[in-house]
Amino acid sequence: MDRLPKLNSAQREAVLTLCGPLLVLAGAGTGKTRVITYRMAELIHRGTPPQRILSVTFTNKAAREMQERAARLLGGQRQNKPFIATFHSLCVRILRQEITVLGYPPNFAIYDRGDQESAARKVLRDIRIGEGAFRPGDLLQRISRWKMAGIGPAHAADFSECDLDSLAAVAYRRYQVSLRAAAAVDFDDLLLLTLQLFREFPQVLSRHQRRFDSVQIDEYQDTNAAQFELVEALVREHHNLCVVGDDDQSIYGWRGADVAHILNFQSYFLGTKVVRLEDNYRCTDKILDVANRLIKHNRGRHEKQLRAHKTTSDGVRFLEFPDEVAEAENVVREINELVRKRDTPQGDITILFRTNEQPRLFETELRRAQLNYVLLGGQSFFDRREIRDMLAYLKVLAHPSDEVSLLRIINTPVRGIGTTTVQKLLHRAVKEHRSLWAVIPQAISEAEISTKSAAALNAFRELLERYRRAFDRTPKKMAETLRALIAEIDYHAEIQKQYKEPQQQLLHWEMLDELVESLERYLERSASPSLSDYLEESALNGREEEADKYDQLEHDAVRLMTLHSAKGLEFHRVYMVGLEESLLPHQRSIDGNEAAIAEERRLAYVGITRAKDHLTLTRAASRKKWGKRRASLPSRFLFEMRSDCASDDKANDVQPD
DNA sequence: AAGGAGGGTTTTTTT
DNA sequence: AACCCTCCTT
Length: 657
Description:
By secondary structure, the protein is α/β, with parallel strands linked by helices. About 50% of the residues lie in helices and about 15% in strands.
């Protein structure tokens, strides 16, 4: 019996190369996920215990999908499943087990982006860097770049190239100190601290090296230095490493991803076998033509010959509208006709865009046309003020030392604990080297604080302790407890105060309901639920709460998402909107170097190759930004993908102003 | 301590 | 246009 019925010869070769380093250069739509799942099945078939196989994916969603595929292929209920995880969830697992040697408690909190920003703000205030020199975002970006390069706070100064870098290096150290004091870890720390463990504690490393016989990495083109070092450490003893990726789809350079890792894989791992997947089963020939013509304008790539297996007479369309409103109106009008008159399922249609500011108009139009839609990514559910507030309550309950969250809620809703009181508490906390939370009782008893404030503080402390006990004692009833907490602090009134329009109030009130529902869903799927486990999950999953929503709609909804979040997905009908200079390529990249433009080009390439059957590219001749209307030029990529590419070199020199 | 007015800034992309 | 911070008044 043929165990690999659905595979072509290249895929087969990749699946059957089970020992030593393997590089699979897989173009868009060539079935790389299938290769990885079949490979796991083959490994198991040849006797590798499933739990000794590690597959790393880029997103939690991809991990879940792969788990499902693997389960299907391996015949449903297996006791030991292969370990399929993202880098971040893999690192969390390792850290929970090992982190005490680094001086953190095993139940460390994980700071999400909002928390990071608050922490960065505080550090900047403490350092009192000149006004305007740094914004929290700038600082975090620098810190993140160091962390992704595997550089710890102690060495950052050595890698500083300008005065701002040196300042950032100082801030980095303080930032790390404050995280540690809060027993918290940020997203990048998950990788960096694991790396530190592996570097400094050989016995820890070898413990984890012995766990896996075979390691596979998906989307390898988006690996950063820290991730590379982690992988290299894990497979050092056996080099049974299979990486799958496409250098033309590397779109995370700004996050430290380095295409060099996939380009130099063969020289790093000697004896690497290379397999190319060049049969594209996803896109029509017309779509693939456009994509190929565009990407040819990039230099220094693994040249590939993607072969289309689907032909059509339906060409790629290029549309132009006077402004962004007309763009949205027309695209949605067309979608409406497709859905109502030609029975196109709404779930077949996807609108892709570069920035998160773009979808608003499309949302308005879709609502007006009474079409279902799901906005994936964008302003995340978890970024909304009311959600952040309530999550901060949960975080303080789960991790009392979490200062960022405590500061957020100590006077929200207002309860008479003003800035003066908070300042006194902070001062004492610093002086006594203790956490803000721990310092409250003494501050009250030593009469440092006015009677009125002291009473408010006491009530606040009593409230939290009471709920902490409730969450601890009956974890199964966490959703009800949360509901009670929301009622007791009267967050309803807070929303009424915050938003004037009754409709807005309703909307935000519903958001809170959704939070409770998300907690309920967690309770359903978790065997031994706990508050901190829920918080960890929502930090790691982040925006994917929205994906859940999409599943609930049973796929019958138009999807809106950024080009970045479309990576790895495919859709029947794609509208790629806003193909204009300063949007795609984005202004920030135009101001940057050639490499930045090349990455934008790859981003456009990713967008185009998401489309299976129909692709429409649109642009607006003018666009409003910050309240001002400005003319916008067609994206240079439009010219590139439509040119016949007679002279590649010339095309590379084109620099429209 | 709270709330409101006014002013300045902001939007790249995300695990 | 949305958000945040700061300052001012109560």
